[in-house]
Amino acid sequence: MAVITNEEINNIRSKANIVDIIGSYLPLTQRGRNYLCVCPFHDDHSPSMSVSEEKQIYKCFACGNTGNVFTFVEKYEDVSFLDAVMIVAEKCGISIDKSLIKNNKVVSNKEEFEIMNLAEKFYQNNLKTEFGTTALDYLNKRGISEEFIKEFGIGLSLDNSNTLYNLLLKKKYNVGKLLDVGIINQSDDRYYDMFTRRITFPLWDKDGNIVGFSARIYRGEKDTSKYVNSRESKLFKKGETLYNYHRARDFVKLEKSVIVVEGFMDAIRLFVGGVKNVVALQGTALTKEQIGLLKKLHSKVILCLDNDSAGENATLSNGEAMIKEGLEVYVIRLSGQKDPDEYVLANGIEAFKNNLVNPMTYFDFKVNYLKKNRDLSNTNDLAMYVNQVLEEVANSKDDILIELTLKKISEEYNLSLEVLKEKVKGLKKVNSQDIKAVKKVNKLKKDAYMLSSDKIIYFMLNGGEYIDEYQKKLGFFDDAMHREIANEIIYYYQKNNDINPPDFITYVSDKETIRDNVMQIVSDGIDDDVSIEIMDGYLNRVDKLMIKNEIKKLKIELKNETDANKKIKILDKIAELKKAN
Q1: CATH topology classification for 448-580
Q2: pLDDT of 21-32, one tens digit each?
Q3: How far is CA 98 from CA 28, 213, 359, 506, in A?
């Protein structure tokens, strides 16, 4: 089986200037030998990421994210390491056989995805038969053309002898597997299709694999659910997917924003109208996994949920959850119709686009929401409202927003601006103390041994002479982590007769723990001067600390030993180590 070799990957890396690649995603400003940009991996408001053209490494001084050109693309694009290699190669104009990348991937759930793809084709074919005329008319009347029926894989489940179950059985698929992916149901000894007499809509994961279906009535049936969704299965986890995510991703990069709606018909309606940076929740509550998907888009989020009280409450809770995760959140509240689908059908897509021009900030939405069900002519209600707004203001890092909000409240309700500012100042002080306390608890301190060992590893990554010096003067680490990394470095150097940090990071890309530790070590040492003299200082320190640690262990062993002869041997070892130290 053909594979892409480590040498070929390193060749791509050596031809890819990290400044050019990161610069294709983010604006870079040169400062001395390095380049600076806003870090896309945390809520960064000032340039915190440094990109070294000399060392071909990037580092964020705020969140600590570090790596080479491949790890940046992997994280920014939310793709696998090998996909990142392919993207970098394409950006550099390097021809690469895509089949090599595919062959290198571990393919999981292959048969399950085959089943789902066959189901989609089966449903789509039904729509083209004489039995699909009514469903096709329904879709066309709702403004879904043949082009978008094909684009979204829309199909039709029937209720006749020609069932999906029979087709899949003829294809020799295991019945248990069909049940596992939720494509059929079982009643006693009878198996039958999950969906009947409904228009079907495929549901995809973030990579564009079909993981389930949603099926809608279309003939005005009563006493039945409007939609039936695939049950949760090994493929489909509703809370881990966002409808249209895989398709919207590229458009989000162009627009620098992602629109979040509730239902997939809302997403389809906007997409058909040319608003393609849209995803759907398929519900009202954002999960942690869905917020994670939105964070990976590195763009502002525009919430446009249903125009009812449930949609308003969902906007509040979802916005709050995203703000806590550092996302930039805006809100659109449509008027007149229940949801974006109905709004566009009634008013046209241009009317919707006009709403996109100036969406309100989540802060403004929440301030307005806090007025809900309050009588602001009542002193107690007004005091409660103002105090809640001040708590929101105290959480903001935007000084202009704070100033404008406080002035507005002062003028609108005839309150002292100074009193409001003092209140916010007090709230900010409490928040600051809480943050400092959390940081103090979370901060991990490395001892002298760990710090010096990190430095030795960093030196070893910078050339064979440093590897030779390590082997000659130390050759061993007490702890497993540094010992394992050192062994990998020695093996890599012996195999390639060359070494540098970005190529070694590529080499350990499939060894997650080692890669993470190496990137942290590189991050901490990226600006260090490198010389044999400095390295010898660290080698001597680690050697002395390891001897000191060994003496401690022997003293404990001596304390617990009862045999006189063995005690003498231990004492001799201690004396020998002290002499060496």
Answers
A1: DNAb Helicase; Chain A (1.10.860)
A2: 999 999 999 998
A3: 30, 30, 41, 19
Q: Is 534 helix (H, G, I), strand (E, B) or coil?
A: helix
CB-CB contact of 127 with 198 (8 Å): no
Whose tokens are 């895989």? That residue is 246
* DSSP category for residue 232: P
Q: What is the pLDDT of residue 156?
A: 95
Q: Confirm or reject CATH 3.10.450.350 for domain 110-236, answering yes or no.
A: no
CATH no. of 240-367: 3.40.1360.10
Tell me the three state secondary structure of residue 197.
Answer: coil
Which own/partner pairs from 101-106 qualify as long-range (CB within 8 Å, at least 24 positions apart)? 101/4, 103/1, 103/2, 103/3, 104/3, 104/4, 105/80
What pLDDT is recorded for position 439? 46
The residue among 256, 345, 239 whose CA lies nearest residue 293 is 239
Q: What's the CATH class of domain 6-104?
A: alpha beta
Residue 95 has phi, psi (to 5 degrees) of -75, 130
b/e code 180-191 from CB counts within 10 Å (16+ = b):
ebbbbeeeeeeb
Helix or strand run (H / E) with residue 179: helix 175-180
Q: Quote the CA–CA distance of 386 and 367 in Å, as a whole number.
A: 9
Angle between helices 532-560 and 564-580 (to 10 degrees): 160
Q: What gap in Å lies between CA 244 and CA 271, rounded to an integer?
A: 9
CA 60 to CA 160: how far, in whole Å?
60
* Strand, coil or helix: 419: helix
Tokens 């001897």 correspond to what residue?
Answer: 547
Tokens at 238, concatenated = 């509703």
- Which residues, 6+ apart, have CB-to-CB distance to 531 below 8 Å? none
Parts of the chain belonging to CATH 3.40.1360.10: 240-367
What's the rounded Cα separation, in Å, for the pair 334 and 574? 79
Residue 536: CB atoms within 10 A of its CB come to 13
DSSP 191: E
Helix-helix angle 309-324:288-295, to 10 degrees? 60
Map tokens 């009643």 to a residue: 187
CATH 3.90.580.10 maps onto the chain at 6-104
Q: Which residue has the tokens 């994280």?
A: 75
Over residues 192-249, the pLDDT tens digits come to 899 989 999 999 998 889 999 999 998 877 757 888 889 888 889 888 899 999 999 9
Closest by Cα among 543, 482, 542 to 518: 482
**Position 1 confidence tier, pLDDT thresholds 50, 70, 90:** very low
Question: How confident is residue 435, by pLDDT bands cut at 50, 70 and 90?
Answer: very low
CA distance 253 to 242: 17
- Residue 439, φ and ψ in degrees, nearest 5: -60, -40
- Helix 464-473 to helix 448-460 angle, to the nearest 10 degrees? 140
Report CA Rg, the chain: 31
pTM: 0.70
